[in-house]
# Entry
Amino acid sequence: MSSDTTINFGGFVPLSTVDWRGHSACVVFFRGCPVRCWYCHNEAILDGEDIRDVSDIMNEISSASLLVSAVLFSGGEATMQEEALTTLAAFSKKIGLATGLHTNGVYPNVLETLIKKRLIDHIALDIKAEWRLYTQRLGLNCAPEVKKSFTLCKTAHERGNLPEFEVVFTLFRGYEGEVKQVASEVGDVSLVLQQGVKHTIPPLTTTELTAIADTLCRPVRIRTREDGEIIYEGFRNCRPSGFR
# Structure
């Protein structure tokens, strides 16, 4: 089977139990990204071309569907390729799979389309820095777009049009001071503090991340390579609000 839609393809993982909490999922990687995060662990697919017919990826998803309950779209940045992403999301829903997306939020209009068409069940939005530091940190003035994506997803989740929504903040040693401001900016949205890992920089440990979480007075999820993902609510001298 062939189609008129193509994808700049970054890779495929037929089975993952760590990329979407509570799901066994296959992962489709889209090549290309407008953002250049210095810590990106998928640098190899930020550029270049590997153009495939989306029907090839549909076949991969179909084969994986015997073992998984969901498909996760990642990258690179999947929302750069709206037609391929919406086509694959619609196909995945049609064959009974839940659909998830990891995104940097630079293309809010694509997220709006996915939500309006009920093609997406889970969005993990990577917030890279405090809003005021986006341009300095990334060399790209995309904070307005990411803010729009955040508001869009938060509203959709509150209205029941987006079943799962979380913000992911990747933490490196030396950037601990930003956490409070980011947590304040996202409010009561589910927040993941993710251990940053990059070459020679010693990563923050689970103990160090829980100490940072203590300063937030709210539930968070802490994600590290050593311990996987934990829900942390053990705040000292705090009265955290409810966790969703």
